[in-house]
Batch of 4 targets.
Target 1
Amino acid sequence: MDIGLFRGGWYNGQIMTSEEFEIQYTRLNKAQKEAVDAIEGSVMVAAGPGTGKTQILALRIANILLKTDTRPENILCLTFTESGVFSMRKRLREIIGHDAPHCLFSLLY
């Protein structure tokens, strides 16, 4: 099944695709797309306030879930603030739906 920017992925025996992912992905610049497309290993995004870090990380998590057999409970996302945890969870829920709460979001002190 081809939906344009990515082809979807298998999760729990069902094919997952996300129209919302595709819409948000097209709004990214080249450097942001590189971060989202890096689905192997860890990534650190360092940028100033309001530059889209939270959005990039949420899209990267969605991309990993859509393109690989990685399960949501095997993803760890660290942030420095409680509001960052809330925002990441909310944005990921908007992109992938009900599986977002299964990802582990935590504070880094």
Target 2
Amino acid sequence: MPTTVLSPAEVTLPFVVTAPAVYIKRLWSDTWSYRPDLELVRAIAAASGQDLGSCELRRRYGLIKQPWELDVTVYEPIDLSGYWVKVSLVGDQGEQQQWVGRISNDTREISGTTTTLSGSQVRSGEQTWVAYEPLHILQRIHISRSIWKVGDNEKELGWVPDLNARDANNMIVGNRSASKSEGGGNTTYVYGGTDLWTHYDYAEYILKRFVDENSIGGPIWSLGGQADLLANITDTIRFSTTQTVADLLRQLIPIRLGLDYTIRATETGFEVHVFALSSQEWSFGGVTLARNPNAVNIVSSKAIDVPQCRVVRTADHVYDRIRVLGRRVVVCCSLRASDGSLVPKWSSALETAYKAGTGNPTDAGDDHDAARQAETYRPVYQSYGAPIDWNFNNGTAAPIINSSGQTANGVADYQNQIRSTLSYLPLREGYDYSTDPPTDHNLSGHESDFWPPAVWLFDPDPEEGEGRYVLAEEADIGVSVSRTDWGVFLSPSPNHLLALNHWASSIATDTDPKYDYATMVATIAVESDQRFGLEVAVAGGGTPSGGVLEIEVPDAELWYLAPNTVVGTDVTGALKTSGVTGRVLRNDVTRLGLVMAGALARYNALRGRAEITIKGLLPWGELVGQVMAVVEDGGDTQMIDAPITAVEWVTGNDPTTIIRTGFAQ
């Protein structure tokens, strides 16, 4: 395991450190100015998942003689609001920058006045300032706008599309441009294309377009550390009307995937330094969660200046069973009137009344047809769906999804009470799904629309040739779906256009039936009663008493094309099907596997937390984001394997450096 060496061998004894050096500047483009009159009281460098790092400074004012001065000097109060602050410490490699931030508030404690030798009155007291790490800046920048590439120009729009999300019709929206665009002195991807954003691309876009102040002499923002790990993540992120940059980065660098970040100062600005939370690689389903290669060993038993070393091993976050949950499985299948899977959804009494029309057999056909337009007759010949005891086409439309996110043999459990039909099919226009894999007839780079629910009617007497199946739309019959059933609603005019072979010649009408609903085939999509997800029993046999953790990935989906689903017609008007074997059209198991690997890393073993207090001010700020591997305390070796989330320096009569570890919450 790689080790960051902080002394010639193991980390044992503190360095000899002089007093901390404090520097300030008003503008980022200014030169740092050393201020020996500013005294460091306390500073914390922290990871974003732990806390907001801060720094407290103190300065006395009035008639004062400083240690480096020969005479008493009058020091007036000063205004440092908005100033940048840098704190450096000296180690065996010389002076090292440890903390950079910006002053946020000023407190004055007024002691009174002092009379000088000349008789003038001088105010005296003490000023204290609190500065915060650059994360505070990101918490104060809200974003409700987005940059788009429109033609050859960039446009700024007043809304932010969800990242890689799908709209109500399941069409992907909020995708990035195919190439990077230059605007405001920064080159990034922007909205306005069909390519998926990676989390790296989007983090770079946010930092460069909304945070970076390079063009006006401010700090430059960049990504660093293990930021390349973000290039493998293309998750969907739902945005609110407005959100802060810190909120966005929290979603782009997700703790649930075993990632966190800290912000480090560079020569030109700030780096969002990404790091993995575990020193071990965790894998699931072929997906591997990267490890943190930077580890630190602390040997406290050899250190004479370690007054406190506290190690806690806790099982509070250990679960016996972990589930990562996507959406319910989307199943595309066909209902056929010929096999009883598509049945009329109106009563025989209502159909009899419909046929009776006005109720007076001697009335003209158009009078009867006008009476049949009454709203009470809407279901007749128009509403169709699965029977109340539908068996999901003998179980072929109820796939089992195993604990690894793959389909398995058998029939999944299902219910027949709560029903709804999706408004789209997981089939794209321009594809021939009668072949496996589907044949794509679209233009290269074109993202075609999804099919609407499809209904085919048999036309027994076309103008030319033999009978053939036609889409309902080709017969000028509208198709909609049921929100309370698994089925479709058709809109023929009149209703009994679909009543061929169910209509006596003696029934008066001006429009004879043309199609027989008993030959109808409907291809629909429904959500099955099984949820797409992964499950692992990690310890103790997976008993409930050991805890069951469920993590939701709401946009992870699995789409299943059931066997023998009608997917079109051939040139003769015969129905074409998807074949005798079911197929998975979309499987986001890789996304779930990455989340599961992160969950195993965080919830599969005892967690270690350590707090080590060392005498002296040590230049160890860059330990934040590294992993503490071992702590030896009086010969007792403790495997911590937890990230260092904070380093704190406390001055005063007994200056100390405190190292804290623990998983981000």
Target 3
Amino acid sequence: MTAAIEPDRQAPAYDPNHIAEGLAVLAKEFKGSVRIQAWIASYLKQVQYIEDALWAIVSLLLDNATGDALDQYGRVIGIPRGTISDDSVYRILLKAGVRARMADGSPESIIAVVRLAVGTIPFAYAEGSASVCIDVLDAITDLTALLLVVRLARDAAIGVQVTGSATAASGRFTFSASQFFPSTSSTQGFADTAQTTGGKLNGVVS
């Protein structure tokens, strides 16, 4: 059974900026006072601790959730189940989604989120001036769910692309490891026209 979020209620989102947001709305006569700003910041820091703790609790509660309960967490976190039927796989993606909501958008934080999402599956990370690409190097259950996880981890202005396959590494498409030289693998890279040599591009989501 699928339950919709009430139209007048927004799904909660992690807020890492309580201190900066609180200080930004100070009355102008107080903005020049270092003491007042420090005093208010000390209280806002405690609010941030509570926010962080609540999202950590969400991650802990996921351990015992199954079925519809996991689906509800997915709506809160922003990672719908989609085609994932295995609760254990979906639970890992949801935990990655919680981590992603707390990420700072740095390459290190995005890589940590993807590592949590894909486990031991190898992947390659590449970035441009305003984009991030994750190339999953072996079979993966759901590219779209991984894309949603990575989108939560990156800055809003950064584009995201995820490539991968539902099949094992041999016989699938992959990018060359170099931006200057083509791949010479007989099992990966672009296939010949008969699709008998080389790999196939089985999925790209962005």
Target 4
Amino acid sequence: MGVAVQAVARRGATVRGVSEWPELRVSDDDRDATVARLRVAGGEGRLTLEELADRVERADAARTRGELEALTADLPHAVAAEPRSRGWIVAVMGGAARKGRWRPPQRTYVLTVMGGAELDLREAELAAEVTIIAVAIMGGIGITVAEGVSVELGGFALMGANGAPDDRPLPLPHAPTLRVRAFSVMGGVGIERKPR
């Protein structure tokens, strides 16, 4: 049971809002929001992998709002647009490519029929989890990810092959996870890890 205390401002005094108390204790949600903001900054190239790992570790250990604010004080206050929930990339007897800075939907369907598709996610703004459903029929799909991104591959190949790099070294804590469900018939899906 809590006790409510009414704050009364005296003449000449000011009442501070909750966000103005740097010594205020933070919640797990506050820590998670700071980690998400740091991850976006790392994806934009504003932080090196070492800086990102250090700041994420300090965010997880933070106890006060002031400690969290110090970790993002040198980062711009950008409002991230909500990623689309679904998207399609299709190549029929031709090719398709996505590279550079882009924001893949949380679930992306890639279909190639006697063609090919290349997805370069090294500069992409990835959500915490991105799923790619890759279907290659007599064609190929190549996916490139940056170091530090966790990759999970599932699916099947009939008269073809699917392949992904192993997670060595281990991905950074709170790094994005790419889940690829690859289905190949006389074709293949290949995932490779390259530095930016």
